[in-house]
Amino acid sequence: MTVNDEMNFTFHPASPIVKNEVNKKFADAFVDLLNIVSGTVPQNSSKETGVEVKTSFPSNLLSFVAFAYGVYGIGIHAGAWSQFFQNVSIMKENVPTEDFWAAINFWIFFAVGHPLLQPILWISDVLHGSPGPKIAELVPLTFLLGNLGAIYIVSAFKEVS
Prior knowledge:
Shape: flat
Number of helices: 5
Helix content: 55-70%
Radius of gyration: 25 Å
Oligomer: single chain
Distance between the termini: 22 Å
Largest sheet: 2 strands, antiparallel
Structural class: mainly alpha
Strand content: under 5%
């Protein structure tokens, strides 16, 4: 998150599986790497983390490479983008204004919402594909037991939640 032109990070360590010292070294090394890539600290620097990050590229090269790949990605799909905008303009010409905007808003909602709903859709696939007998022809027993186990672990162990 960026607040007052300052980037802030929240790390969710894999405790208690990974020791706190290892998690701290990872977070510090990650921040060191971001500082090097952004050009805010000299290359080949290391703090008290004990992890030395060595790079041999200019400080803003990564940003330029990401930008170039973005432009390239849009460019190779230029025909599809052109066809999309042509179809939208044809739709706008042939549909009343309020119906057109309702359809566009629904499409935007679907396009944005679909990736956000992907975890829910994945768990639904797991539910329907779980092995074992079904309870009331609705929920497989193994899926129900797995959910109850996960709920117990999250509620019983503070480190997991």
